[in-house]
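2024-03-11 09:14:02 DEBUG pipeline.ingest accepted 1 chain
2024-03-11 09:14:02 DEBUG pipeline.ingest length=73
2024-03-11 09:14:03 DEBUG pipeline.predict start
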Amino acid sequence: MGFDENGLALVKVGRKWGYLGRDGKLAINAQFEIAESFSVDGIARAYVGGNVGYIDKSGRFVWNPRIENRVDE
């Protein structure tokens, strides 16, 4: 997998995933159990502590991690 249009590439460091910049440095620290490529909207799905959330290109959660498929009552 290569760099996307944002200049980021998924990279696995140890057991965690992060994003590498074109300069060869981590643009977003490897802190996710699972991470996906960024969509055209500039967000990516990322898992932390078994919960899923969505991050922006700076690595900040725009939708905080929560249990996937949870039904709120």
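2024-03-11 09:14:41 DEBUG pipeline.report The mean pLDDT is 88.
2024-03-11 09:14:41 DEBUG pipeline.predict end
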